[in-house]
Fold these 2 entries.
Entry 1:
Amino acid sequence: MISLVVLAAVARLVGTAAATQSDPLPLPPMGFNNWARFMTNINESIFVDAAEAMSKNGLLAAGYNRINLDDAWSTKERAANGEMVWDPVKFPNGLPWLTAHLKSKGFIPGIYTDAGNVSCGGYPGALHHEEIDHETFTSWSFEYLKIDGCNMPDHSEATYHEVYGRWHEILSGADHPMILSDSAPAYFSGEIAGTNNMTDWYTVMGWASAYGQLARHSADILVYPDGIYGGGSSWVSMLYNYGQEVRLARYQRPGYFNDPDFLNVDHPSYTLDEGKSHFALWCSFSAPLIISANIPALSQEEIDYLTNKDLLAVNQDRLVQQATLVSSGQTWDVLTKSLENGDRLLTILNKGSSTGDLTVSWESIGLSSKALRRANYVSAKNLWTGEQVKVSVKDGGITAKAIPSHGTAVFRIAKSISPVTPTGIIFNTNTTNCLTDNKSGHVTFAQCDGSDAQTWRVRPHGNINSLLRPDECIVDAQGAILSRHSGCRTDAWTYELSGNLINNNSKLCLTEGANGAATATSCGYELNEQVVGLPVGVTVVGITV
Ligand SMILES: *[C@@H]1O[C@H](CO)[C@@H](O)[C@H](O)[C@H]1NC(C)=O
Ligand SMILES: *[C@@H]1O[C@H](CO)[C@@H](O)[C@H](O)[C@H]1NC(C)=O
Ligand SMILES: *[C@@H]1O[C@H](CO)[C@@H](O)[C@H](O)[C@H]1NC(C)=O
Ligand SMILES: *[C@@H]1O[C@H](CO)[C@@H](O)[C@H](O)[C@H]1NC(C)=O
Ligand SMILES: *[C@@H]1O[C@H](CO)[C@@H](O)[C@H](O)[C@H]1NC(C)=O
Ligand SMILES: *[C@@H]1O[C@H](CO)[C@@H](O)[C@H](O)[C@H]1NC(C)=O
């Protein structure tokens, strides 16, 4: 839960190295949390009933094995000895009973606190009580801790870093460290912080991704429309969080997952196709799959898509790549990533208002038509229908037919004889403008339109070419970015965790200048105009904490 406050950007803390902790969570967590469905109206029955329903309806068997409490489980005051106290009315049997009960049913229990002095919902926060609260949560047998970021002493990046750093030390020093879900980055995302300056957001993402196993990076997904919270479109809310997630792909790695928030699948404003797209996108991202819904009341259709084995295998794939955009236009978004066995994922989202078909070329998928010529066909599985297809190489790519408005097509393309090249848009993660090639060789930043002029291949030696001009590569020509044949021999580029794309020769950073100019200028610290998103699979160099 996040309060919409205007955060003042102050100094950042420089140069503290993060201890690399052993990864207790190699794969994205799956389970249940009360927040988006019940907010603060919680009690023991919600969690007991959710667990029972999940055991019966196949969710537990499908891998949803976490039951996480969110805000409002405690009394409004600590005990005289300083400890947190569970609300005895909401939890008549107590939290140790609840965790034992959940564990006996095969679930792993998680709990919530707030890094500030008061939680978002007005309950005691953990500030200056970190040690005692950690001991309490451990003694109650919780194994997962979400730490929200309301009501901190101030809104500076340095303060958040210091307080979350304290938690990191405590948790990583424990015998069996709890999973840490930290919400700090959300408080620095543009809309919530009320700023156009994204530098602090990127900085917080850097340390949050080293401190926790997952981090909430932006707004809460729309909560259930009860009397207090009103209505709204969950599709719009979901697409907003999706749009934030795609800016941050470079941070995800085994053991750390960007968290675009809950699967609020039973929000009544979703159509079935929209709910399925929400799920398919979160699976494509290898994002946490934490359902926040009234589980006992889920429909069979909802259970069916939430337990789709092929999509869950994509989510839980051991490479845990976050799919990135191949292209993005008015109607279509196309995403890809690689899977551990060498398969490619292709996810196509129809943002438009009518049903449509789309063909995605082999090159866009990251394959080579030339290499594929030695084969007759490419095998693919449609993950929504389960249909296996053999697509003739001569067809030029994969065609998805009749994708409904707000629906998604997902294909798992079997490993082929073609090598895989990271391919997709290169975009400024502040303006979301796409690096755009031009037949003249002139390169600019322009609104993303889904064209081949905006789909780039990042080759093994760091040369980068667009699909529009496959024989040319971008170069830093005295500060101006051009696309030229000579660049493929001489100009390598390096992508850093800071989001900078740096020319190996000039050491200058790709920069979006005024009016969409694409230039190479001296690298600053995570500047709006120099932080870009690249296709997943490109090596990301450096850890900045
Ligand atoms: C953006 O924020 C960073 C970190 O707080 C600061 O150093 C920088 O000067 C800001 N940039 C602008 C253009 O205000
Ligand atoms: C528990 O909370 C749910 C949702 O707020 C409510 O419907 C139910 O009546 C409550 N049960 C008890 C025993 O208080
Ligand atoms: C929390 O901190 C704020 C200022 O940092 C203070 O005004 C407030 O009284 C504190 N609240 C509690 C419950 O400690
Ligand atoms: C970041 O992008 C927003 C939206 O396009 C724009 O208003 C703002 O000026 C940009 N900030 C910088 C420093 O480029
Ligand atoms: C391509 O560049 C030429 C000249 O540099 C310019 O006139 C034209 O508008 C550009 N086209 C696009 C699609 O940007
Ligand atoms: C480019 O620079 C990076 C980082 O310094 C280095 O790892 C890489 O090998 C260089 N690539 C080439 C082709 O020189």
Entry 2:
Amino acid sequence: MSKQKLGERTICTHTGAVEDPIFRGAVSPIYLSTSYDFIDQDPKRYPRYFNTPNQEFLSKKVAALEDAEAGILFSSGMAAISAVMLTLLKSGDHAVIQNDIYGGTRNFIESHFESYGIAYTFTKDLSSSSFESCIKENTKLIYVETPSNPLLKLVDLFAIAKLAKTHNIVTAIDNTFATPIIQKPLTLGIDIVIHSATKYFGGHSDISAGAVASSQAIIDQIWGLAKDFGGNLSDYSVWLLERSMKTLAIRVKAQQKNAKKIARFLEQNKAIKRVYYPGLASHENHQLAKIQMKGFGAMLSFELSNEHDTISFLKSLQLIKPSMSLAGVESTMILPAKTSHALLSEADRKAQGISDQLIRFSVGIESKKDLIFDIEQALENSKNN
Ligand SMILES: *Cc1c(COP(=O)(O)O)cnc(C)c1O
């Protein structure tokens, strides 16, 4: 292929395919071997070295999408996140962590950092000044996640990257909600991008995987730890993930197109108190979203008015599934107060703006009119007497 920079949909479709020189099939063959020739092969290939042919090649697709030099795939998002954190943070180090991050990430930090001798500070809010005020002499990592869950608040990535550089601190982002189709943090100066590939990369709610993209030097450093911790993805899943990622760009774009229209529909509906979507002018970070994102994503949250019961609303849905997780081609809704944020005290939830009436909506690729119809009929069937 020519030297010109490939378009995103071309990268999704072609980059990182494993060639089939013998049969010249159209799709990548799966190499399931766990044993490779060591005499004439360099590097030595082994699944846990993250370098079977399928792993090695699919990580090139992830890297290309994130404008990164290199990538590495994991068996889950948390395997990726924990590998990044434990690579960068050693006993005696300190990390600055965004206050509202994925529950599993928070739990990892709060449950294990102390036993590793790693100190941390959660920011007060998502402002750059809040991050700055948490920096200490021994801070080695600033960790962000934007848009955040479930209120889709944004962190100013360019400002955080600049702040970190002046203090010689490495930055990492969980880019799961945005995907590289909507946000490319490395181009804004962030050092490491992490994905739960269980979400949009997989996109069909049937793969557990994680991915990291960064400079070759940082990926090599992460590899040094990851190969000892294990946590590589099976080649069956790598192959399935490659197949899924071919449609990443078109899926995400179709989903965000639906989300934008549904956010407007919800905002005008009397049964909805409030809608949180970065694409709405009413969202606190709408201006920043226009600058650092290409589109506004396909995740939104809304608060049902008190005249409606959330459980009967969710049970009345016929098309949209009330189910955990997110980012599949099918639309799903959850109650953050009863799931991701159930472990917080009611006061903490309130402080974070997560009410019992709040519903998070992962918008799928269905026909928009059918989604709207489903919401309307569920609203009709969930009125309190
Ligand atoms: C799901 C998720 C994770 C964790 O990914 P797993 O694949 O479940 O380990 C991390 N960050 C975000 C934003 C997520 O949505």
